[in-house]
Write a structure and sequence with these properties.
The protein is 48% helix and 20% strand. By secondary structure, it is α/β, with parallel strands linked by helices. Strands 2-1-3-4-6-5 form a 6-stranded mixed β-sheet, with helices on both faces. Helix 1 runs parallel beside helix 5 and helix 3 runs parallel beside helix 4.
């Protein structure tokens, strides 16, 4: 079975459990990358709320109540992680909502590292690896495991 097909089935499982497709707040400052990620995530069955900056993400998260926050912004890894945590805090989102900061150049390709406080950094080898991480974190955070 192709990974994308598996992903759509897992996303559909989550949707059946919570009554709607999981919502990903996707924060990406490069328009082309943001558009591409939005299409890929939507094709996997996610609802996607795209944001282009920390402030934009706070405004959107306050209205949308995401199930997961996916962040890739320009800046040092520590600055991007700090911005991601501020997004969750400033928008009033519960700490149980996972944050994934991806494409962090200071960790090995393919690595996933938990920073605690339900914050993960990753540098996926491919989109399938990112897909798998999102599902694992959503299943855990939504209490479906």
């Amino acid at each position: 079975m192709a990974p994308a097909t598996t992903q759509v089935r897992l996303t559909a499982f989550i949707e059946r459990q919570i009554g709607c497709a999981p919502l990903v707040l996707m924060v990406e400052d490069v328009e082309e990358t943001r558009d591409c990620l939005e299409r890929l995530l939507a094709a996997d069955g996610y609802r996607v709320e795209p944001a282009r900056s920390e402030d934009d993400a706070v405004a959107r998260a306050s209205r949308a109540c995401p199930d997961l926050i996916l962040v890739s912004l320009a800046g040092s890894p520590s600055a991007v992680v700090a911005a991601a945590v501020r997004i969750r805090r400033r928008s009033g989102i519960d700490a149980s909502v996972p944050i994934v900061v991806f494409c962090v150049p200071t960790i090995d390709e393919g690595a996933e590292v938990s920073l605690g406080r339900n914050v993960w950094v990753t540098r996926p080898d491919n989109f399938d690896q990112l897909r798998a991480l999102l599902v694992r974190l959503l299943v855990r955070s939504l209490g479906l495991s």
